[in-house]
Design a protein that fits this description.
- The complex is a heterodimer of chains A (about 220) and B (about 425).
- Chain A has about 220 residues and is mainly alpha-helical.
- Chain A has 10 helices and no strands.
- The longest helix of chain A is centred in the N-terminal third of the chain and has 40 residues.
- Chain B contains 9 helices and 23 strands.
- In chain B, the strands form 6 sheets. Chain B has a 5-stranded antiparallel β-sheet. In chain B, strands 1-2-3-4 form a 4-stranded antiparallel β-sheet. A 4-stranded antiparallel β-sheet of chain B has the order 6-7-8-9.
- Chain B starts with a helix and ends in a 10-residue tail after the last helix.
- Classes of the chains: A mainly alpha (about 220), B alpha+beta (about 425).
- The interface between A and B is large, with 54 and 47 residues.
């Protein structure tokens, strides 16, 4: 049944996902051209030192696409379920309701992960080509925070979409709106404690998606 | 998971509220903090200060309450305003009984502001540095073609090829090892700014806690064992390349003692002590006095020493204003049992957890909130999960109460439970 749920999610999201892949491809290409352009204008050592001294995240233009994609996937995945009350029908399938909700959320997170891995591979390739290993090795560290932030945004977007009443959406928005502020990190070499805290904060919010699903199931 | 999701939602909301509500409270009710800026006048042998009002109008005074004009005020601080006074022809021949030529006043000075964030930045900074040529024969410092890092060996990354320069890396690794350096390196400190007249290189702490000075002289490694060892565990070294000073820079040890590292054989000379993890140190040295200003939340302690003898001359302890005062502060301390602060700084964003400064008041407030919440729920017959919800209010205070009210899932006959 797990495979069938993922197959259903794939059919629902494949077009949206294709558009997001194109958006990420464009963002990565633009990023590469901007870095290449900067290196043709200035000496490499000056570029390196400038970035290190200012702790400038030279690949920050890839942050917005992954965060935006997480929100779009969350809405695209659950809006059709809500708008046509499919979710309640799905709950009558011969599968545990919680298992089904979890499988759907897992598919959404897997989609966000796939896009993030693509961004990570591309930005690491660009970074390793132009920058020394100690700097390039920091790219996954910073981007890991973006990933955690994207997962949090996905959960919030999914939960708000799945929440059946508008009053509930507003209340939940107030409750979770500021949560994104807690996970962000903007620079290199963050302390290990910050990373552990960000992972814990992400794990705390993951089960929240079951709350609106339950309300929907019970006919709110 | 259905049931647990409710509690995860409440916990997430409590954490979010603990960050955003105190922040909004501060913005809404915080006032302007106007702290006088104190300085020591060698002319009066006393402190003078200036403060600004809301319209940025400055008021210059001494501790007796006497007011000065700006022109009079800068004459009280001839070391600090030597350039201005000299250009007006008003630089004094005699300052507190001592004759200091204007050239000396302009050259022999040093300023340092060392905040806890600076210490953090030294440790979160990307550990890769430029090694400048220390004997280039030119008056300035030029960027090298490579950067280096030092861990269990020295590695130079050539920027033109973006690859490790193996020969140079080996040369420097061997030079350090020959000088007795025990790899891996633990910490490294230096001034990476090119806007300096020359270069003192880097102070590198090895795995045994010994400090070595590493430089590049005529393209070759130059290493000196400073003799500063494990008995003085180094927290940070701030290097000042100034040919008119008799020291390489300031060194702070992990216990907060501040030393000058002298040019004379890397001897260390104690300057003072503070808490480098929580306080800021402002260090200002001129030919007559050395000023140490140590500030934390709501206070500033100033110590004036003789630059020549390091003997204390004067000290002053100031209480600084805070953004929240009176009733607003009392409410803040009682209503918010804890605060999660997400502070932006140069090394990213720090998430810090603070308990209320008046924790007992916060506990009492939470107990009252929990009692009222529990009583209202009990009285209205909505008793399902009453004990756990009341316990949440007890622990999470106003944040948990707000989350439960927003959740609004105990209406009527516990419809959604």
């Amino acid at each position: 049944m797990y495979k069938q749920i993922w197959k259903k999610e794939f059919f629902k999201l494949n077009r949206v996902f294709a558009v997001l892949v194109i958006m990420h491809l464009a963002a990565v290409a633009y990023h590469w051209l901007r870095v290449r352009g900067a290196f043709t204008m200035r000496e490499p050592i000056a570029m390196w030192l400038d970035i290190i001294e200012k702790s400038a995240v030279f690949f920050s233009r890839l942050e917005v696409p992954i965060l935006l994609s997480a929100v779009i996937i969350g809405i695209a995945q659950f809006y059709p379920e809500v708008s046509r009350r499919r979710f309640r029908l799905s709950c009558h399938l011969p599968v545990d309701e919680q298992f089904m909700t979890g499988a759907m959320a897992l598919f959404g997170i897997a989609s966000v992960t796939a896009l993030w891995l693509f961004d990570l591979a591309a930005s690491y390739a660009v970074g390793a080509h132009y920058f020394p290993a100690p700097l390039a090795s920091q790219i996954p560290v910073v981007m890991f925070y973006w990933y955690l932030n994207a997962v949090v945004l996905y959960v919030i977007a999914s939960s708000l979409t799945l929440e059946p009443s508008w009053g509930g959406k507003i209340r939940m928005g107030i409750m979770l709106g500021a949560y994104v502020r807690l996970i962000y990190v903007g620079s290199y070499n963050p302390p290990a404690a910050s990373t552990i805290a960000a992972v814990i904060l992400t794990l705390i919010i993951l089960p929240v998606i079951f709350w609106p699903a339950r309300r929907f199931r019970q006919g709110a | 998971m259905w049931k647990a999701s409710r509690y995860f939602l409440i916990i997430a909301a409590v954490l979010a509220f603990a960050n955003v509500i105190p922040y909004l409270y501060n913005i809404a009710l915080g006032g302007r903090v106007s702290s006088p800026y104190y300085q020591y006048s060698p002319v009066l042998n006393d402190f003078v200060y200036y403060s600004t009002d809301r319209s940025a109008r400055a008021e210059y005074m001494d501790t007796t309450g006497r007011q000065y004009s700006k022109d009079e005020y800068i004459k009280l601080l001839p070391m600090l305003y030597a350039r201005d006074l000299f250009s007006r022809g008003e630089y004094p021949a005699d300052i507190g009984g001592v004759s200091i030529p204007v050239e000396r006043a302009l050259r022999e000075k040093d300023f340092r502001m060392i905040r806890p964030a600076f210490i953090d930045k030294e440790y979160t900074r990307m550990q890769i540095y430029p090694l400048f040529e220390s004997a280039s024969g030119f008056t300035g410092v030029e960027l090298p073609v490579d950067l280096f890092r030092i861990t269990d060996r020295v590695e130079f990354y050539n920027a033109e090829r973006n690859s490790v320069d193996s020969a140079k890396s080996e040369l420097y690794t061997d030079a350090l090892a020959a000088a007795g350096f025990q790899f891996p390196a633990v910490k490294i400190f230096g001034n990476t700014d090119t806007r300096k007249p020359f270069d003192w290189g880097y102070f590198v702490v090895d795995s045994a806690g010994s400090v070595y000075n590493l430089r590049q002289v005529k393209g070759q490694p130059w290493v000196a064992d400073t003799g500063i060892g494990a008995s003085q565990p180094v927290l940070a070294v701030m290097v000042s390349e100034n040919q008119y000073l008799d020291y390489y820079g300031l060194m702070i040890t992990t216990d907060g003692t501040v030393y000058k590292v002298l040019l004379d054989g890397y001897r260390t000379e104690r300057v003072g002590a503070y808490d480098p993890y929580n306080e800021s140190l402002y260090y200002y040295m001129n030919p007559i006095t050395t000023e140490l200003s140590i500030s934390g939340v709501g206070y500033e302690d100033m110590y004036i020493l003789s630059t020549a003898t390091h003997q204390p001359i004067a000290e002053k302890h100031n209480i600084e204003g805070t953004r929240l005062n009176g009733f607003a502060k009392t409410v803040y301390e009682a209503a918010f049992p804890f605060v999660l602060r997400a502070d932006n700084n140069k090394s990213g964003r720090d998430l810090s957890f603070y308990l209320s400064e008046n924790f007992m008041a916060a506990v009492i407030c939470s107990v009252i909130l929990a009692a009222v919440y529990g009583a209202v729920r009990f009285g209205s017959g909505r008793r399902y999960r009453l004990a756990t919800d009341t316990a949440l209010v007890l622990v999470g205070g106003v944040y948990a109460l707000l989350a439960l009210l927003l959740l609004n899932d105990t209406k009527g006959k516990d419809k959604w439970i």
